């Protein structure tokens, strides 16, 4: 067998491979013998079918088997000969084989980028003094109060702080976006930011027993994709108006809601939790910033096949979540993220080789032990579960990444931020904001009045 790299374009390689006619004929002869032995043809005893009959009846199958056999042997040998790190399945344009002739074909592949070194010098990060303001603690306490609020039916007009109990009737739905039928006894919080804005705009001032029509124009990014961008008119029949009765903030409240003996102890626990949360968010920001700067400092090409595989996995995840998506839009919007993620993984793996960073068995055991403790499992059962689900390699990759990031962070330069709000918006979010985000993540997709649970 002979092989030669005929062209190189970026990461694409075209290898010309030649198998001599002698080897080709030998492969055909072996297949003829195999078919003669196994073929069952009326009028001939097993193993006694003439070659010309076999060739007439099975030549296309024999040719396909020979082709597959010779490519299966010669292509991997050519890859080894040229020491290629293949990143994509091979493409064999115009491939064909003929008995009695040399077998020449071209294999078109993508290869992994060659990374001689990884520059991780000059990484600059913000040195942040983590602090918790009294207003942030107040926001958490206020959130706990509202969670513990009681609702009392009142005989008056609804205010923007009230909840109304109503029946809902669809009176105009041009696109037939909502399933037919009425919606009864719906509790609608007029004060919630998650409530579609037209409902509080119209229903504030209404009393029990009254009706009002509410025309709704759903935004294009509405959580329920079926309703996004649609206009629907509802008839709201209000049955009750309920006001929130907030509990008094005292030691009894602290025991019931803060697992504390006193209000002071509750506030101190809240402050400590907020600080830990901010520290964790800052640490996550540091790691993400390291990844970004490393990718920016080390410009490498990415095999298109790896990008395509990444994007296909994104769409598979969306399918599993029953999330509607436009494949063309996903390929366009997620491609930069795919390329950056793949670049970081390639650079991280190479840096671990250069710096001789390894994942030891004890590292994996310790990780699994911590995982088991978090999920109240025995370590052996946790390891077995991870092995059965094919997650042990992911564990190894996670540990390796943490070790590489730890090395880079020891070399990073920390500078004071220009402003107190420079690092990340997450660090400045109130407890209400974070609670709203959690609700966004779990809101019911079929709810057309509010995006809350």
| Alpha-beta classification | alpha+beta
In the predicted model, the low-confidence regions spanning at least 5 consecutive residues are: 420-428, 435-446
Shape call: extended
Supply the CATH class of the domain at 279-428: Mainly Alpha
Percent range of helical residues: 40-55%
Rg, alpha carbons:
33 Å
Strand content: 15-25%
CATH architecture of the domain at 279-428: Orthogonal Bundle
Distance between the termini: 67 Å
Say what the CATH topology of the domain at 279-428 is.
Trigger factor, domain 2
* H and E string: EEHHEEHEEEHEEHHHHHHHHEHH
Main sheet overview: 5 strands, antiparallel
Query: What is the CATH superfamily of the domain at 279-428?
Result: Trigger factor, C-terminal domain
H/I helix tally: 14
Q: Could you describe the 3D structure shown?
A:
- This protein is an alpha+beta fold and 453 residues long.
- Among the domains are: 2-110, 2-Layer Sandwich (Alpha-Beta Plaits), CATH 3.30.70; 279-428, Trigger factor, C-terminal domain (Trigger factor, domain 2, Orthogonal Bundle).
- It has 14 helices and ten strands.
- The protein has helices at 21-38, 51-81, 134-147, 198-203, 251-258, 263-297, 304-320, 327-333, 335-354, 361-374, 379-388, 392-411, 425-428, 431-442, and strands at residues 2-9, 12-19, 103-110, 124-126, 150-153, 163-172, 183-189, 211-217, 231-245, 413-415.
- Strands 5, 6, 7, 8 and 9 form a five-stranded antiparallel β-sheet that branches. Strands 1-2-3 form a three-stranded antiparallel β-sheet. It has a two-stranded parallel sheet with strand order 4-10.
- A hairpin with a 2-residue loop joins strand 1 (2-9) and strand 2 (12-19).
- Helix 1 (21-38) crosses helix 2, helix 5 packs across helix 6 (263-297) and helix 7 (304-320) packs across helix 9 (335-354).
- The chain is extended and about 100 Å long.
- It starts with a strand and ends in an 11-residue tail after the last helix.
């Amino acid at each position: 067998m002979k092989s030669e790299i005929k062209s190189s374009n970026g990461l694409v390689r075209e290898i010309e491979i030649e198998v001599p006619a002698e080897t080709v004929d030998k492969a055909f002869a072996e297949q003829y013998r195999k078919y003669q032995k196994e073929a069952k043809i009326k009028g001939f005893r097993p193993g006694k079918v003439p070659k010309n009959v076999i060739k007439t009846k099975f030549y296309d199958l024999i040719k396909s088997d020979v082709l597959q056999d010779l490519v299966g042997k010669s292509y991997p040998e050519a890859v080894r000969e040229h020491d290629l790190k293949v990143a994509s399945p091979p493409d064999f344009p115009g491939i064909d084989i003929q008995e009695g002739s040399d077998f020449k074909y071209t294999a078109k592949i993508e290869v992994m980028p060659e990374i001689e070194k990884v520059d991780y010098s000059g990484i600059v990060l913000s040195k942040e003094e983590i602090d918790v303001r009294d207003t942030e603690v107040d926001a958490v306490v206020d959130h706990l109060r509202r969670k513990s609020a009681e609702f009392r039916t009142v005989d008056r007009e609804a205010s923007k702080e009230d909840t109304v109990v109503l029946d809902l009737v669809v009176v105009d739905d041009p696109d037939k976006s909502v399933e037919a039928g009425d919606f009864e006894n719906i509790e609608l919080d007029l004060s919630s930011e998650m409530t579609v804005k037209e409902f509080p705009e119209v229903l504030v001032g209404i009393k029990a027993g009254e009706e009002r029509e509410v025309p709704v124009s759903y935004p294009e990014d509405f959580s329920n994709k079926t309703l996004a961008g649609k206009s629907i008119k509802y008839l709201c029949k209000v049955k009750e108006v309920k006001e929130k009765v907030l509990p008094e903030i005292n030691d009894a409240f602290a025991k019931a809601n803060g697992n504390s003996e006193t209000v002071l102890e509750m506030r101190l626990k809240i402050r400590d939790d907020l600080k830990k949360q901010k520290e964790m968010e800052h640490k996550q920001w540091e790691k993400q910033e390291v990844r970004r700067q490393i990718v920016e400092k080390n410009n490498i090409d990415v095999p298109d096949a790896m990008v395509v595989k990444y994007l296909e996995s994104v769409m598979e995840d969306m399918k599993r979540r029953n999330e509607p998506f436009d494949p063309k839009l996903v390929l366009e919007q997620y491609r930069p993220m795919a390329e950056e993620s793949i670049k970081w993984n390639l650079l991280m793996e190479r840096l671990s080789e250069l710096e001789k960073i390894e994942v030891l068995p004890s590292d994996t055991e310790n990780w699994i032990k911590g995982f088991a403790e978090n999920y109240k499992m025995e370590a052996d059962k946790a390891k077995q579960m991870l092995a059965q689900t094919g997650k042990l390699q992911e564990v190894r990759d996670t540990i390796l990444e943490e070790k590489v990031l730890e090395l880079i962070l020891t070399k990073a330069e920390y500078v004071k931020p220009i402003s107190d709000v420079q690092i990340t918006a997450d660090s400045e979010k109130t407890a209400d904001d974070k609670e709203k985000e959690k609700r966004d993540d779990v809101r019911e997709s079929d709810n057309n009045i509010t995006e809350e649970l």
